[in-house]
Amino acid sequence: xxxxxxxKEGIVLKLGEQLESxxxxxxxxxxxxxxxxxxxxxxxxxxxxxxxxxxxxxxxxIALNDKGIKIDKELMDQPIAVAFGTVDEIAAAKGINEFAKxxxxxxxxxxxxxxxxxxxxxxMVLANIPSRDELYAKIVGSLAAPLSGMVTVLSGNLRGLVSxxxxxxxxxxxxx
Length: 176
Description:
This protein has helices at 5-21, 35-46, 57-66, 91-102, 120-127, 132-175; strands at 24-29, 50-54, 81-85, 107-113, 116-119.
């Protein structure tokens, strides 16, 4: 059933709001995905605060133009869905990339980062960056390594002192 002009304007407005609030977005060719696979993708993305929207290219193009974002015109010749990452800059790219590993029908076409179009290669670079929690863990590990090394060195000196005192005690008891 055809949508009325008012419904289309509402869709464009919602897409504009999603573009505004998104830290990043990934453009995906979803052709070949079944409805159940699309729902599976939505569920996986939702776990990481990423929303997934399938929309008409013309309406999405209008929302992009309203925000002053230019993308490759060739992308609009195929069905496009958009994954919007609102909390983490790389969550959308990571989520789509992980899903694409098990579902060949999903193809990353490009993305939006800081309201600028980025190509597929740059989206893949984002997808391969460790998550925020992984980076925090690496920083904590890097900060803790010198401290644990110092504890080992200092405890080695104490062990040496205890060993010398023990040998002295054994020598004294052998002489008596």
